[in-house]
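Example A, followed by Example B.
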Amino acid sequence: MNRNHAAALLTSIGAFSLSLGGAMAQDNGTMKSMPGMHMDAGAAPSGSAGVKLGDLDISGGYVRAMLPGQPVGGGYITIHNGGKSDDRLTSVTSSAAGKVELHEMKMDGEIMKMREIKGGIAIPAGATVTLAPNTMHMMFKQVKAPFKQGGTVPVMLMFDKAGMVDINLPVVSAKGN
C-alpha cells in the first residue's frame, strides 16, 4: 500500500478517532528538518488571507468540512519566519472546539501513525513551515458543530515570541481539491 493510499484510507475511516495513548512525539531539535514538512502543500486549496505577526507571515489556512460521524476535524496553515531568530507555535485554541492539538502523521513502514506534538512546532528563522494533510496539522477535538463547507472556523494561534493572533479559517470540501 503506498503512502497516499494509506493516508486516504485512514482519513476516510475516521483515523482521527484512533487512540493516541501511545508514545508522544518529543521535540528534540529534529522538528527543524522533519521530512515531509511541505508534503501536499502544492495541492492545498486557497485558504485564509495572509496575516503578519511580528516576523511571521501566516497564510493559506483552512479546515476541511467534516464527514457524517467524524468526531474531529483537521486544520492546516503555512507559517513563514522572516526574522533572524527561531519562534515556536506553542498552541492553538478555537471557540468551535473544546480542544485543539498540534499533531503529526508519518509513515512507520506500512503503518500511518499520528501523534500529538508536545511542546509545539518549531518555526526556524528564515524557514517556512506548512501544516498540511498527512503531515503536521491542527486537530480539532470536542467539536461543537461539524465544520460545514463554506463556513469559517475561528482560531487563536499562540507563538512563543511573536505572541498571539486571531484568524478565521475557511471550511473547504472534506475531499480537498
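Example B, a separate protein, is given below in the same form.
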Amino acid sequence: MHRISKIHERLENDHAELDDLVARTFTALDDADAARIFENLDYFWARLGMHIRAEHLRLFPAVREIASRSQELAAIPKILDRLREDHDFFMTELARAIKAMRLVFSFGNEAEMFVVVRGILEAVVERLTEHNDIEEEQIYTLMSDEFLDDDSAEQLLASVQKELARYPARFESRSKQ
C-alpha cells in the first residue's frame, strides 16, 4: 500500500476548505443575511473555480498520461469526462445562484430568492459529495509513487499549488490571510 501523496493530501484538504465555505453559505441562508449569502456564495464559487482549474490544467492531464500507460486504468478517461461534466454543472448552477442573489439586491423578494438559492446549493452539494468521493478514491490515488517518480510528483504538486493560489482579483486580499 502506498502512502497518501502530497498532491492527494493537498487536493483533499482543498475539498475540506470548500466544504467549510459552503457550510458558511448555508449558515448565512439560515440567518437570511443577503449580504453574507452573496459574499460567501461568491467566494465559494471562485474557490471552487480555482480548484477546478487546478484539476483541469494540471492534474487531469497527468492522470490521463498515467492511465494511458496501463490497461488496468482504461476506465480513467471516462471517469475524468464525468468529473468534467460535474465541474460544468457546478459552475453553471452556482452562476445561477449568484444571479438570483443579484436579483435580490435589485428587486428585493428575498424570501423567494433564498429558497431558490438554497435549492441550487443543495443540488450542487449533493452532486459535489459524490464527485469528491470519486476524485479522492479513484483519481487522487493515482498520484502515488507507484505511478509518479519523486521529481514528477513535486513538479505536479507545485503546479497544482500555483493554480490554487491564483485568486481572482476581487479576492486577492483574502489570499494573503
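On Example B: Residues 67 and 74 are 6 Å apart (CA to CA).
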